[in-house]
Amino acid sequence: MGNRDMPEGRPRAERPAGDGVHGAVSVADEENPFADPGVPPHEHRIQDIDERAAKRSERAVALLFTVSMLATIGFIVAYLLIPNDKSVFVFPLGHVSAMNLALGLTLGVALFCIGAGAVHWARTLMSDVEVADDRHPIEASPEVRDKVHADFRQGAAESGFGRRKLIRNTLLGAMALVPLTGLMLLGGLGPAPGTKLRHTLWARGKRLVNMNTGQPLRPEDVAVGSLTFAKPDGLAEHDEDFQDEIAKAALMIVRLQPDDIKDKRELDWSHQGVVAYSKICTHVGCPISLYEQQTHHVLCPCHQSTFDLTDGARVIFGPAGHALPQLRIGVDSEGYLQALGDFEEPVGPAFWERG
After folding, report:
1. pLDDT in tens for each of the 355 residues of the chain?
2. How are beta strands 326-327 and 94-97 bridged, if at all?
3. 135: which of 19, 91, 176, 193 lies 20 to 30 Å off by Cα?
4. Do strands 314-317 and 326-327 pair parallel, antiparallel, or not at all (unpaired)?
5. Is residue 19 within 8 Å of 11, Cβ to Cβ?
6. 8 A C-beta contact, residue 167 and residue 61
7. What whole-number distance in Å separates Cα of residue 50 and Cα of residue 55?
8. How far apart are CA 156 and CA 168, in angstroms?
9. Which among 294, 285, 301 has a CA at the least distance from the CA of 254?
10. DSSP assignment, residue 139?
11. CA end-to-end span of the chain, whole Å?
12. Is residue 209 a contact partner of residue 231, using CB atoms and an 8 Å limit?
């Protein structure tokens, strides 16, 4: 048993009460086998008696908080500058994402240094006097509440938060910067769509090409009662962005009798009864592929949204929110069907930037 357990070489049971020991100290016997042994007297730390040691601890804590701030800045820089497809070799993990490695290391250092700085601050500079209190009823009396408030104020004063400005300022700086890592991670949800959902490859003079044959379409190639799918001229399946572009530019072409077209704009935007509408359903973006020859209705196979192609492709059944966009078409000097511009509105389902 060391001197801390038996200060001044005396058994703890023989120390008188009131010498820094909480409660009445007594000797265990048969009637009182669980006697209060008391607590050892408080031993001062080097920082309590040497201001130079306290300053060294203060600088160490401030250094940890400063490293945390630098690591947070490094996190932001890594997120902004490191390409997400760059990889590095790390033994023994092998090739790993350079961005993920940098983000993990910088965020880990930022959080660790805040925690390590707080622990070192508490262990070396905050008051470490042992305080014991008797049990009391759950409901605090006014005296207890006053005591708690007084203890809080005393603890705040003893922590040196107000007096040690270097620690306070670096801690506030570290705590203020760390939340920025969460804000930066919001960018990982994906790039903002911008205006790319509002535009397709269709433009004035762009020919309509049959999706199956790859040949430009003439009006006589589209028979009454048939459904033809088309894509913009120049878009090939081996293109890197083919899937992204065809998801917006896919067309379905139907030939109607001009007298059957009820919507005036639809008639004006057609050519000899040939109308071109977006193939993308306005509900959740499924490709429309079912056509009723007698009614000229098209049906989305996903959720049965139904559109009337004789009346501006308006929704007549199902969960779709709005009509299919129509592409204004005509013929060029060689007699091939061509677009006279892009869609007037975004294709597919609604999105948050649509307005």
Report:
1. 344 444 444 443 344 444 444 445 566 677 777 777 777 777 889 998 999 999 999 999 999 999 999 999 999 999 999 998 898 998 888 889 999 999 999 999 999 999 999 999 999 999 887 777 776 667 778 888 899 999 998 888 888 888 888 998 999 999 999 998 888 888 777 776 678 888 999 999 999 999 999 999 999 999 888 899 999 999 998 888 899 999 999 999 999 999 999 999 999 999 999 999 999 999 999 999 899 988 999 999 999 999 999 999 999 999 998 999 999 999 999 999 999 999 999 999 987 766 5
2. unpaired
3. 19
4. unpaired
5. no
6. yes
7. 9
8. 12
9. 294
10. S
11. 78
12. yes
**Cβ contacts of residue 100 below 8 Å, gap of 6+?**
none
Residue with tokens 């961005």: 99
CA distance 83 to 78: 9
CB 273 within 8 A of CB 283: no
Query: Position of tokens 């390590």?
Result: 116
Please give the model's pTM, rounded to 2 decimal places. 0.51
Both tokens of residue 212?
A: 């199956």
Check if the beta carbon of residue 320 is closer than 8 Å to that of residue 300: yes
Question: d(Cα 207, Cα 233) in Å, to the nearest integer?
Answer: 5
In terms of Cβ atoms closer than 10 Å to its own Cβ (0-12, 13-18, 19+), residue 68 is buried
Q: Where would I find the H helices in the chain?
A: 46-49, 51-81, 98-124, 142-159, 165-177, 179-185, 242-249, 264-268
> How many Cβ atoms sit within 10 Å of the Cβ of residue 139?
6
- Taking residue 165's Cβ as centre, other Cβ atoms within 10 Å add up to 12
Q: Angle, nearest 10°, between helix axes 98-124 and 165-177?
A: 150
Q: Tell me which residue has tokens 């107000």.
A: 162
Under 8 Å CB-to-CB from 215, ≥6 apart: which residues? 209
Tell me which residue of 322, 205, 222 sits closest to 274, measured CA to CA.
222
Q: Compute the distance between CA of residue 28 and CA of residue 146 in angstroms, rounded to an integer.
A: 36
339: nearest Cα among 349, 348, 330, 352:
330
